[in-house]
Specification:
It is built from eleven helices and no strands. It is 74% helix and 0% strand. By secondary structure, it is mostly helical. Among the domains are: 1-104; 190-283, no CATH class. The longest helix has 49 residues, at 54-102. The chain starts with a helix and ends in a 12-residue tail after the last helix.
Length: 283
């Protein structure tokens, strides 16, 4: 049975390794493409500033926008691939860790040494916590609450009904085993202390800090700004200096709006210590 499970994991490890190698090649290609777009932007800029006619200036302006637009698309795609690469690498670690445990090697998760208690009636004698313990063998928790829950379940005696209920729960989890591996991969690199900090923030003053985002005018402005900027850029290349003046006024107004809301923005940002992206993994 163990050999069958290990063979399955070995096959998955091989597949993940191949996927990781492929993703790295894609990232390298995107890096080269980004460099090419930068060079193209330089060439188009030279063409733009050396244009001798209005038509050439207009064409140069349009050409200047093309590498920028493509660059944005490339960056978005590369970001997705980067995230996928991290996910695959973490998932690879999870499966390799399971193979290690099957071969009597140390588990990469916490051993529960913090829960060792020489005064407990049985945990010390039965090696429940610590290196080479039962906890060290079965623990797959990363979060603080998960580790505590597992420790509590091992440190207190339970009766037959609860034992049977847990066995049924284990049977159910086995039907979602791949999902549990994926979830563990998402938690792999998480800072436990940061998770606890975010929990406190979500239960605390976050709602009041985000109240300014409900401002109707602000929400309308944020939605309209990208389209307005593109329209002004295009109009500037077509109609010239007058429109560029409007752009200058808009940028000045934008700076004023940003400064006005900077206190609220900083409260939200520093409230999460720059780690709000961590929430995306729970979406």
């Amino acid at each position: 049975m163990l050999n069958t499970v290990e063979n399955k994991y070995q096959l998955i490890v091989k597949q993940l390794s191949e996927q990781i190698a492929s993703l790295k090649k894609q990232i390298n290609k995107f890096s080269i493409l980004r460099l090419s777009l930068l060079l193209a932007e330089v060439v188009f800029f030279i063409f733009f500033v050396s244009a001798k006619s209005d038509l050439s200036t207009t064409i140069g302006g349009v050409l200047l926008l093309l590498p920028i637009a493509v660059f944005i698309i490339v960056v978005k795609k590369q970001t997705k691939i980067d995230n996928l690469l991290t996910e695959r690498e973490n998932l690879l670690w999870v499966y390799e860790n399971e193979i290690a445990v099957l071969n009597n090697k140390p588990n990469g998760y916490n051993s529960g040494a913090d829960f060792e208690d020489e005064l407990h009636p049985y945990t010390a004698d039965l090696d429940i916590f610590g290196q080479f313990s039962l906890y060290a063998l079965i623990n797959r928790n990363v979060t603080k609450l998960g580790k505590i829950k597992l420790a509590e379940s091992l440190a207190k005696p339970i009766f037959k009904p609860e034992i049977l209920a847990r066995q049924e729960a284990v049977k159910e989890v086995l039907t979602y085993l791949d999902d549990t591996f994926s979830f563990r991969a998402k938690l792999k690199n998480h800072d436990v202390e940061k998770i606890e900090q975010i929990k406190k923030r979500l239960n605390g003053s976050l709602a009041s800090h985000l109240a300014f985002t409900k401002n109707v005018l602000l929400r309308t402005y944020v939605k309209a700004l990208p389209f307005l900027m593109v329209a002004i850029f295009v109009a500037g290349f077509v109609f010239g200096d007058v429109v560029w003046g409007v752009l200058g006024i808009l940028l000045f107004a934008h700076a004023g709006i940003t400064f006005y809301f900077s206190k609220q923005i900083n409260q939200v940002y520093h409230g999460f210590s720059g780690g709000a992206n961590l929430l995306a993994d729970y979406a």
